[in-house]
Amino acid sequence: MKIALLNHGCAKNLVDSELMLGLLAQKGYEVTLDEDNADIIVVNTCSFIHDAEKESVQAILQMVQDGKKVIVTGCLPQKYKGELKKAIPEISGMIGTSDIKEIVDVVEQVANNKKYVSKISEKPEYIYPENIGRQQITVGASSYIKIADGCNYHCGYCIIPQLRGEYHSRTIENIVEEAKLLVEKGVTEIVLIAQDTTSYGIDLYGKQELPRLLEELDKIEGLGWIRIMYAYPSQITDELIDAIAKLDKVVKYIDLPLQHCNPEILRAMRRPVMDYEKLIKKIRTKIPDVAIRTAFIVGYPGETDEQFNELYEFVKRVRFEKMGVFEYSREKNTVSYSMLEQVPAKIKKQRHKKLMTLQKRISKEINQSYVGKTIECIVEGFTDDGVVLLRSQHDAPEIDGMVYASSKNTVVPGDIENVLIQRSDDYDLFGVIV
What we know:
It is a single chain. The protein is α/β, with parallel strands linked by helices and 434 residues long. The protein has 3 domains: 2-119, Rossmann fold, CATH 3.40.50.12160; 142-368, Alpha-Beta Horseshoe (pyruvate-formate lyase- activating enzyme); 374-433, CATH 2.40.50.140. It contains 14 helices and 19 strands. The chain has helices spanning 11-26, 50-65, 75-79, 81-87, 103-111, 160-164, 172-184, 202-205, 210-218, 238-246, 263-269, 276-286, 305-318, 345-368, and strands at residues 2-7, 30-32, 40-45, 69-74, 93-95, 117-119, 142-146, 148-149, 168-169, 189-193, 225-228, 250-255, 291-298, 322-327, 374-382, 388-392, 403-406, 416-424, 429-433. Strand 13 (291-298), helix 13 (305-318) and strand 14 (322-327) form a beta-alpha-beta unit. The longest helix has 24 residues, at 345-368. The radius of gyration is 22 Å and the shape is globular.
């Protein structure tokens, strides 16, 4: 019995997929990523925004059409328990966000021709299943480690707390153990993820323990880089900033989604209202050569032209090294869904374009400043014509730019090499390994 898995959505979902594959492999199932060659397909879905849902649903329909037995896992079944099965009656099984340990049982029942199996907790409570060897879909230079799941915030546009439950941290010991295993497999960079990495440890240890976790990870022999994603602005403490600044293996990069800068919009979003410019200035002062990535939402209900212009001017002044912009997506069961002043799609699109055009220019200017410098980069792989694909410390996997370089010597994915940057464009750098 061959089982294939299709993963949709974020890196946190990817870890869940790898845990499910690990459970199945433990039970002796043959696992493949080639759906044509499998009897049962597990589709791990994303439900963060409408477009992600659409993509997940299309994948399910395609597999059903191909005559496969389909088990749907993750956010979509958690959000639409009854409706999803009604809409696509051919689905063989569904598993909720906090029920991934049930995958073996569900697969066994589906394999034995049980018509339909559902394992969806009414109130999701995601506890990381320790002692499972993750079967990695992508073994490369870097790997994600989920340090917590769930979320205690209730941002006005976000459904994640309803789909994932309350915040649960893993122990420092378990995370360090997993990191060591990944390093043994040849991973050079670990990327720490959670709905909010900066709240790590509050539930377990009574206080923020991300700085202590970083200190423990920094001691691991053979580990090259440690990267932090999904930081929450009001949780960036001096202790955390100091840890990033002083620990050699922690890359000088902070992913800090701010979502907006206007106080009224931030209040409506249920986000921290604070002086973001002051915070960024402090980070840049204490961590020289830091790259800050952020994300903004344009077209949130009630956003006026003046408020958008305020955001535009803020971005112009602060000059983020990396930035993503999202058009507000109206999601059911969120506070913002029923807000009256919904912004027309056309205006959202215009604002998105205007902000990204500005960022493209800023990014191009920042990239230009690397030319002539030699920077440390991690080898990701190679193009067909032998160009080495790398990433700098200032680039997170899959979302930021790349460094393209030539090399006289043989290099191996995962190696950290010095690259002399010779030219740049809007988002990427080009050079030679020295």
